[in-house]
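Please go through the sequence and fold tokens given here and tell me how the chain folds. Record follows.
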Amino acid sequence: MYQFFEVRNFRCFRELTLPQLERVNLIAGMNNVGKTALLEALFLHCGAYNPELTLRLYAFRGIEQAKLEFGRWVETPWDSLFSQFDTSKTVELAGEDERTGHRILRLRVIRQPEELAKVRQYIQPSSGKPKDIPSFSSEKDIPSFSSEIAQVLEFECTEGEQHRKYYMILDPNGVRVEPIPPPPPFPAFFLAARVRIPLTYEAELFGKLEIRGKQDALLKALQVIEPRLQRLSVVVAGGSPMIHGDIGLGRLIPLPLMGDGMARLASLVLTICNAPDGVVLVDEIENGLHYSILPKVWRAIGEVARQFNTQVFATTHSLECIVAAHRAFSESERYDFCLYRLERVYETIRAVTYDQETLAAAIKTGLEVR
């Protein structure tokens, strides 16, 4: 699990630190203060080596397609990742993780001809193996190829004494990453507020649980909302697999027909169970859940997160959601939960940390923690 996480020059953050991270971490704050951006920073850091992940952030925001343009000084899809759109800066994401140790990820836009030439010499298309970066004694030694490589984003990942560099390249042929990055160090899921997981993908996630004999984890969690639920099964209807449940009606019912709360909790639990020793990021976690069942939902989330050793980061606008989480974890064997409230002070965004004692006092006295 992450022990702490630091962000510099990413989106709206000049500098932000999250200390004392727990198994379940809830992020609150006013609109446009950076809650979703913080999840995006964590998502990139979890991926570690793959620059292509920056393009996926558009889908999380509900933007179906990023416009790609070419030319040395044209704005790129990743310009918005940099604080105040200043691509002369370097984005730095750092975290201490018990699985991989201290890891720093740096994002940098390469535009100068000499640096572009070095990148061209460094990469070896399709081989997956980088070459040594060359040096040039004068401008006349620099190859002319600006028409071949229009824009380059460099990912530099530092783990201990090991340094790796990967490049996302935009050119007239499209988008490519060189060299081919390795798999991420651990599984990570991002549940966006505006994008629902396809039902067929949920059925696939449930199938993976069945293979490992862990399908009862989902059943037990859903029984929090629907006590009549006896079993779950994947049924192929109309050529598409979908999770169905037995609630004693003499036939199986598609899970979405049992209500938004059941569908939402199923998505949350399925992703947590399928990210063992990994991370799940959830934007606006209270969506689709009635406030009255939130304590039970948080109890279920805490139980599956511990069972699968998964760390959860979620955002919320809801005071009921915060109070419910505090209540659920206070009643559990371990209070492995922490609230962070992002607030803007002049041009800087900072995180206020609420542990169990501090949050209990704030709720009791009616202090604003959203």
